[in-house]
């Protein structure tokens, strides 16, 4: 969702057996770039529900969010101001089913091995690098920080 020129985005590090899932995007703004499953928050959508929806849409997995590495404010590769809400989660259902036109590959990487990954292959590498650092240092915070969305 874009609001006042700001793009609101969610992303999730799906962690399983000490590994995290990366997806390779095939979007016009991110050809052959690795990223965590992510996407825009829809109008009036709860942030946590948006994160689970995006994971399901891009990977086929149903996830339960279990933490957050934080909120990131940056200028994207496409020169948009982005506020990114990044979560950690675990698979609770579904199976890997990548969106054909948008996602061309996926791989599970050991969390320590993420630092050795070619940074030029990441979408918005500076932000991904910050997220990786927090994952490696186990700087994962409670979801209590995010209140349920209240509709009037």
TrEMBL record:
Coiled coil: none annotated. Residues 5-132 form the Nudix hydrolase domain. It comes from the Bacteria. Pfam families: NUDIX. The keyword Hydrolase applies. Keywords: Hydrolase. PANTHER family: ADP-RIBOSE PYROPHOSPHATASE (PTHR43736), DIHYDRONEOPTERIN TRIPHOSPHATE DIPHOSPHATASE (PTHR43736:SF1). Belongs to the Nudix hydrolase family. This is NUDIX domain-containing protein. It comes from Heyndrickxia vini.
